[in-house]
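Workshop exercise sheet. Pairs work together: one partner reads the sequence aloud, the other fills in the structure field after running the prediction. Swap roles for the next sheet.
Pair: D.N. / O.F.
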Amino acid sequence: MTDRLETLQNYSAVRTEIVALLNAARTASVRSVNALMTATYWEIGRRIVEFEQQGQERAEYGEALIKQLADDLTRQFGRGFGAVNLSQMRRFYLAWPPRQIFQTPSEKSLALPELAAKFPLPWSAYVRLLSVKTPDARAFYETEALRSGWSIRQLDRQISSQFYERIALSKNKAAMLEGARRAEPGDAITAEETVKDPFVLEFLGLRDEYSESDLEAALIHNLTDFLLELGDDFAFLGRQKRLRLDDTWFRIDLLFFHRRLRCLVVIDLKVGKFSYADAGQMHLYLNYAREHWMKAGENPPVGLILCAEKGAAEAHYALDNLPNKVLAAEYQTVLPDEKLIADELERSRSHLEERRLRLNQEH
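Structure field:
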């Protein structure tokens, strides 16, 4: 018995070591890809700027170049090379010019792997730093992120809280800097999150798979079936559809097209209770969908917010973004009743929880 216990303890230690090794290897792999990606985007920015400098010095010229490149690169490489991203690469090169990157003139001809070593932060950090308007503040945040080992969440928090401006006014700068080094709950980036960084997946041309909870996944699946069973009005377009607003990534749970209303239906599921923040986020989604996904001849998209709090499911349409009350009234008449959807959501949740309890009892 003692030998068996010792074996189990040894196994636990070995397993812990292997898990740590795999997590470290995955994180290091993504860090390596991230550095190459950042160096590549800097080089793309350099080529855009140098090409512009050879031509006409007019804003229209640069915009035409970006648009043509965006069309061609997106056709060949897929997502990640739209006009917004290419403009960002151009800004990245201008904000980190060669004189800031290279110590000697000979380094300007570095191969991509050697150039990657010049960018120690992940691409997402440089994207966030680009939002800092003044060069001095940007340099401060970059230096502190490197020195203190800030995650992207820490960097984002410090920039959002105007840490640079606050520390400039502080009489005890050392204490503030020391406090900024301490991470808060939720600051750490897991190995899984690192591997699934949308920027990295986009760069590598990989599909973006999102890790949902079992409950969310099951509710979304059941809701999809329910809407399709209501008739042929709802046409399924996709789930967990990714979009980018400024420097933040979001995922829409479900996207349908309503054939009779001729509009997109954006559906967002919340496991908790409804809040006004949910409505604000939905309006961001609808503005994006109207600008980027809506096709000629279609009506404006409509949102459906689902809140699956236990015992108090809710469904709310976002109709106040429509151009007039007549269209809103038509939408309200044709779309399924909110209570009908909320009741189905509650039934699905109850059924799933009952099944989970039954399986637990069986095991």
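Discussion prompt: Residues 161 and 278 are 23 Å apart (CA to CA). What would you look at next?
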